[in-house]
Amino acid sequence: MEKSLFFLLAVSFASVTMAQEMKIDSSKYQRMVTFTAEQDHKNMMQQLGIKALRPGPSGNESDANHANYDESLANPCPQLPEILTTKNGRKVTSADAWWKQRRPEIVEDLEREVYGRLPQNIPSVKWTVKVTDQEYVGFTPVVAKQLIGHVDNSSYPLINVDIKMMLVVPKNVKGPVPVLMMFGWPAFPSPAQPSPDDMEKLNEAFKQMMIKNDPNMKAIFDRYPAYMPITRLAGPNFFAPKPESEFSPTEQLLAAGWGYATIDPGSIQADNGAGITRGIIGLVNKGQPRKPDDWGALRAWAWGAARGLDYLETDSLVDAKKVGIEGVSRYGKAALVTLAFEPRFAVGLIGSSGKGGATLHRRVFGEAVESLTGGEYYWMAGNYMKYGASEASFGSKTGCDLPVDSHELIALCAPRFTFISYGIPEKGDAKWLDQQGSYMATVAAGSVFKLLGKKDLGVSNDYQTEKMPPVNTGLLDGELAWRQHDGGHTDAPNFKYFIPWASKLLKYEKTPVKR
Ligand code: GCU
Question: Please, what is the average pLDDT of the chain?
Fold first, then answer.
């Protein structure tokens, strides 16, 4: 029964899509290139004159070609690019020189060589609220808004990009509230369900529909007259609230009077190489492959987050000056890229971001430059591939040839509030991520926070000698913060520290409202 209903729905969806597609005369547009990831990778190698790339190391320590985990071999070029010296060798000693000279130099290098540039002609995004739901998350009444950001694709209708986002705001505090935007799946936290009376009507109508579809169903319903095919989901438990220590990150945010938004990276840009002629990157390129300094998926996700923030700026429930960005792993990289390049984000929680995120590119420990020039190349600009080349028209290059590094990416976030988070390898936040290299980059980035009149980690900026603090010892006194928790590949255990840290810096105190 359910199957036939599902089938009916599936058929009607399919015909809607077909009708939409039929309206587009695809012969009017440049043909979309369909590459496998391998073909796209190869195409970029050819554009760059690369004949061979060094293979990336294996993440499996028992493999012969496993990644390096020997600290004494991890720093082939221990001197990082000078963060506070301009290209022409002048020391940067004022905030003005940082903003006007040095920062733009770093942005240029990071865009051209590492993450790619935003195209000039990115079409606009129109946001609509698809569903507004009044819900309860535990004891907290919330408004949940399901949002769709449609990208204007009139210039190339063969590609459709609809950014998916969910905004959840507590109703028991005085707004507008700060919001943490998180890369993840935008689901309703706890969809409101029909009352028992409404449920009865729904069941009645549903039974009629099924009998109409297949008269044999009537005998079944008659055999079980009290059976209700549509049942309520288990609701929130109001009688035995769970202890605060068991609150999820989003529950902790709501309890602290914050809202949150989840934004779906895959609805902006696919997380694979074959998708690079689709999604927002493909739409702007009219279905053609990238050029070497075009944006990669990380920059595209970051762009999408900034469009999400455009929506939040229009929503009176949100204090758009107090919006943060969060992500873990590849989305930790995306969160750091977002914070670095979009100054309207006030704060970031950067979870286990590793190579391409907080970790130094030129470190050789765990995940390598060669990993990001191999299977994960599409996260980055095509140009980044040069640093994994063993044979090319320009010879060969390694991470040591990069004109920039991740300490400078972190520095682009200054003076905004930047929390770098990791877990421990014993619990699954693998050594692959190079916690030590991320700490070094964070230490080095501190000098820019200080130049801008803010506090950094509270240690020196000598990245070669500073020691990582013990696990569970946060350095949380400044606008730049670090904490390695004792959990796995997640930032959830650090929310307890992130939320009060961010609230204090944002000068936010929740004001309960009487209801
Ligand atoms: C792989 C990848 C990492 C990434 C991680 C993830 O391990 O090498 O760079 O952070 O996947 O996103 O889960």
Answer: 94
Does residue 231 lie in a domain region? no
pLDDT range class, residue 515, cuts 50, 70, 90:
low
Q: Give the predicted TM-score (pTM) of the model.
A: 0.93
Cα dihedral value 290, 113, 343, 459, nearest 10: 150
Phi-psi bin for 211: left (phi > 0), alpha (psi -120 to 50), beta? alpha
pLDDT score at 22: 54
| Token pair belonging to 380 | 């980055």
Show Cβ contacts of residue 280 under 8 Å, excluding neighbours closer than 6 positions. 122, 151, 161, 268, 269, 300, 303, 304
**Can you give the residue range of the structural domain that contains 354?**
104-190+248-505
Of 504, 468, 390, the closest CA to residue 56 belongs to: 390
- Note the pLDDT tens digit of each residue in 111-127: 999 999 999 999 999 99
pLDDT of residue 20: 53
Q: Is 446 in the pocket of ligand 1 (CB under 6 A)?
A: no
Backbone angles phi, psi at 384, to 5 degrees: -60, -25
Q: Does residue 396 contact residue 386 with C-beta atoms inside 8 Å?
A: no
Cβ(498)–Cβ(349) below 8 Å: yes
CA proximity to 173, closest of 461, 472, 509, 400: 509
**For 181-197, what is the HEC assignment?**
EEECCCCCCCCCCCCHH
- Helices first, then strands: H and E counts in the chain: 14, 11
Could you identify the atom of ligand 1 that is nearest to the CA of residue 332?
Answer: 10
Query: Which helix (H) or strand (E) segment is 331 a member of?
Result: helix 330-341
Q: Give residue 272 CA to ligand 1 midpoint distance, Å.
A: 13
- The pair of structure tokens assigned to 345 is 């984000």
Each residue's pLDDT tens digit, 208-218:
999 999 999 99
Q: Does the residue 293 lie in any domain?
A: yes
Q: Is 330 in the pocket of ligand 1 (CB under 6 A)?
A: yes
In a domain, 64, yes or no: no
Q: Are 335 and 350 in contact (CB under 8 A)?
A: yes
Q: Is 488 helix (H, G, I), strand (E, B) or coil?
A: coil
Q: Is 438 in the pocket of ligand 1 (CB under 6 A)?
A: no
**Residue of 301, 330, 384 to test ligand 1 pocket, by largest number of atoms within 8 Å of CB:** 330
Q: What is the CATH number of the domain that holds 308?
A: 3.40.50.1820
User: Are β-strands 318-328 and 417-422 bridged in parallel, bridged antiparallel, or unpaired?
Assistant: unpaired
In a domain, 71, yes or no: no
The DSSP H or E segment spanning 400 is none
pLDDT on residue 12: 41
Sheet holding 259-263, edge to edge: 125-137, 140-151, 162-170, 259-263, 177-183, 318-328, 347-351, 417-422, 480-484
Task: Count how many domains the chain has.
Answer: 1
**What percentage of the chain exceeds 70 in pLDDT?**
95
**Predicted pLDDT of residue 24:** 85
